[in-house]
């Protein structure tokens, strides 16, 4: 996906050296694809497992939306060993970027970025937890695909991304998919129970707003790298994620204490259908799964871009409804099937447009190589 450097034409006596250089190039390209596959699997596995376990927690008696939003970010210390390992490797690159920047950001500006994005992440996690609590898993996942539509909207204004026909097609399809799910909300009451049926619309609204805030946070993060940090090294990305998760965890913990739900966690654990030990195991596994997804997302950001990382993270959302039918025996009526097909279609349009955007530099590079050889 990254453009290959231009190379001059080798003279006749250098043919052997040129042929010898092909093997390392192919090895490097193969290693890049292996890293991309590993990062993608981490994102898909982590996000899918975390979402399914969150649904299991609610199904078996869990009720704390503050706790489920907290475990999304509180596992960030797992990233610290990666930070310490890769920091020496990226120190030189960061130093070179600092030399290029005439006015590096001050500590106050960095603190403002981390605090604002961390608070936004905390609010997003809380709203997602509310949506997952009140909605069937399949409906929740399909509505969450709206984050791609919001991502295109915010990227258009904040990151100068063009709205191509494929992007517009994706926006329309994802919007229609969400509208269909709202129209068939009455039948959802049988799947979530009578006590939650009254709050279905709250679940819809919370999930849509969370999708918008998630995409806004991603675009603001990309804007921070472009305008303030003036670079996107592995070290910078890890700094952003660790400090942002720290702020989000602190905000969520404060909300957990202020709301008074902290006092109810002991009773909730005791009445959990699978027992106290499984309660703790589920919470720990959710935290670890989210961090696995984060590690994969960091790798995709470093290898390609933040927008591409968001596309891959959204790839799991059309998969989750199928798993919800198999694991939790959720019903899949005709309206939801149509909504699923439209969501996958919209996602495919978005991914194909991203593929075209990423392939253009390579095509231009190949044309330049042909002209140079001529």
Automatic annotation (TrEMBL):
<feature type="transmembrane region" description="Helical">
    <location>
        <begin position="140"/>
        <end position="160"/>
    </location>
</feature>
<dbReference type="GO" id="GO:0005345">
    <property type="term" value="F:purine nucleobase transmembrane transporter activity"/>
</dbReference>
<keyword id="KW-0812">Transmembrane</keyword>
<feature type="transmembrane region" description="Helical">
    <location>
        <begin position="32"/>
        <end position="53"/>
    </location>
</feature>
<feature type="transmembrane region" description="Helical">
    <location>
        <begin position="204"/>
        <end position="225"/>
    </location>
</feature>
<dbReference type="GO" id="GO:0015211">
    <property type="term" value="F:purine nucleoside transmembrane transporter activity"/>
</dbReference>
<dbReference type="Pfam" id="PF16913">
    <property type="entry name" value="PUNUT"/>
</dbReference>
<feature type="transmembrane region" description="Helical">
    <location>
        <begin position="279"/>
        <end position="302"/>
    </location>
</feature>
<feature type="transmembrane region" description="Helical">
    <location>
        <begin position="237"/>
        <end position="258"/>
    </location>
</feature>
<comment type="similarity">
    <text>Belongs to the purine permeases (TC 2.A.7.14) family.</text>
</comment>
<protein>
    <recommendedName>
        <fullName>Probable purine permease</fullName>
    </recommendedName>
</protein>
<feature type="transmembrane region" description="Helical">
    <location>
        <begin position="166"/>
        <end position="183"/>
    </location>
</feature>
<dbReference type="GO" id="GO:0016020">
    <property type="term" value="C:membrane"/>
</dbReference>
<feature type="transmembrane region" description="Helical">
    <location>
        <begin position="308"/>
        <end position="328"/>
    </location>
</feature>
<keyword id="KW-1133">Transmembrane helix</keyword>
<feature type="transmembrane region" description="Helical">
    <location>
        <begin position="335"/>
        <end position="352"/>
    </location>
</feature>
<feature type="transmembrane region" description="Helical">
    <location>
        <begin position="65"/>
        <end position="86"/>
    </location>
</feature>
<keyword id="KW-0472">Membrane</keyword>
<keyword id="KW-0813">Transport</keyword>
<dbReference type="InterPro" id="IPR030182">
    <property type="entry name" value="PUP_plant"/>
</dbReference>
<feature type="transmembrane region" description="Helical">
    <location>
        <begin position="106"/>
        <end position="128"/>
    </location>
</feature>
């Amino acid at each position: 996906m990254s453009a290959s450097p231009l190379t001059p034409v080798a003279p006749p006596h250098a043919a052997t050296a040129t042929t010898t250089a092909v093997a390392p190039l192919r090895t490097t390209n193969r290693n890049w694809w292996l890293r991309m596959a590993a990062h993608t699997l981490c994102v898909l596995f982590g996000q899918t497992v975390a979402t399914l376990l969150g649904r299991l927690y609610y199904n078996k008696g869990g009720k704390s939306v503050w706790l489920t939003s907290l475990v999304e970010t509180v596992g960030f210390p797992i990233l610290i060993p990666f930070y310490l390992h890769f920091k020496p490797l990226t120190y030189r690159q960061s130093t070179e970027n600092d030399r290029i920047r005439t006015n590096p950001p001050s500590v106050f500006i960095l603190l403002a970025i981390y605090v604002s994005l961390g608070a936004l992440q905390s609010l997003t996690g809380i709203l997602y937890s509310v949506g997952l609590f009140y909605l069937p898993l399949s409906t929740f996942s399909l509505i969450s695909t709206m984050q791609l539509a919001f991502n295109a909207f915010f990227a258009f204004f904040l990151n100068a991304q063009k709205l191509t026909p494929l992007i517009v097609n994706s926006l329309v399809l994802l919007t229609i998919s969400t509208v269909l799910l709202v129209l068939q909300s009455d039948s959802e009451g049988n799947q979530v129970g009578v006590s939650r049926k009254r709050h279905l619309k709250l679940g819809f609204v919370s999930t849509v707003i969370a999708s918008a805030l998630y995409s806004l946070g991603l675009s603001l993060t990309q804007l921070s790298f472009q305008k303030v940090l003036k670079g996107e090294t592995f070290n910078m990305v890890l700094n952003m994620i660790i400090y942002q998760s720290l702020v989000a965890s602190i905000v969520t913990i404060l909300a957990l204490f202020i709301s008074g739900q902290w006092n109810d966690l002991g009773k909730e654990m005791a009445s959990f259908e699978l027992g106290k030990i499984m309660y703790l195991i589920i919470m720990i596994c959710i935290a670890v799964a989210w961090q696995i997804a984060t590690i994969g997302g960091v790798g995709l950001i470093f290898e390609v871009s933040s927008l591409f990382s968001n596309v891959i993270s959204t790839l799991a959302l059309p998969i989750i409804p199928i798993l919800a039918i198999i694991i939790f025996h959720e019903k899949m009526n005709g309206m939801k099937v149509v909504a699923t097909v439209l969501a996958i279609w919209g996602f495919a349009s978005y991914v194909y447009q991203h593929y075209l955007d990423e392939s253009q530099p390579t095509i231009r590079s190949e044309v330049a190589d042909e002209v140079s050889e001529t």
